[in-house]
Amino acid sequence: MPRRASPKPARRKPAQPPKISASANKGAVGDNDQIGFRQSKVAAEMTELEERMYRLSEALKRIEPENSSRLMSGVKYARTELIQHEMQEIESILTKSDYKLAAGQEKQLLAKLARLEQLLLSMDLDLQLQLQQLRALRDVLHPLRFRDQRRRPRAKTVRSQFRPRPGN
Question: Half-sphere exposure (CA, 13 Å, Cβ side) for 1?
Fold first, then answer.
């Protein structure tokens, strides 16, 4: 019985990525542009909000000093926390399509914005201002405390060397 030649396995073509139509590619770019546009719009609105808060604070100084100082605290907080700058950074990250990094920074930014909202809506402004001042003092004193703790053991040994000994 003659052996039949086994059919050769058909050669498979190497897998090629699916072709993306030009319209689908434009849609992806459009989404990136749309997200970037939204972020830039939010950043512009934040700039406008800061400017309005400042102008309103100036206008309310004589009539409602408490509300004026609350608005000024909000402006100062927004500027010291660099909220506007962070929004611009997130916008540039989004244009690079690094959504994971952008999402993490957005969460941090949202926490700062929530704190700003709390500061602006707080009825007990004096307490909020005192807490803000205490936090600033804590941030300044914290490094000094550790520096002082490192010096103390050395100071004790120096003092013990100069103490008069009994019997002298």
Answer: 1
Q: For 87-123, b where at least 16 C-beta lie within 10 A, e where not — what string?
A: bebbbebbeeeeeeebeebbeebeeebeebeebbebe
What backbone phi and psi angles, to 5 degrees, belong to 64? -130, 80
How confident is the model over 115-153, as pLDDT tens digits? Answer: 888 888 876 766 666 777 788 888 888 887 777 666 666
Tokens of 48: 């406008």
Q: Return the domain boundaries, the chain.
A: 29-122, 124-159
pLDDT digits (tens, 9 = 90+) for 99-124: 899 899 999 999 999 988 888 887 67
From residue 133, alpha-carbon distances to 13, 66, 123 in Å are 70, 17, 17
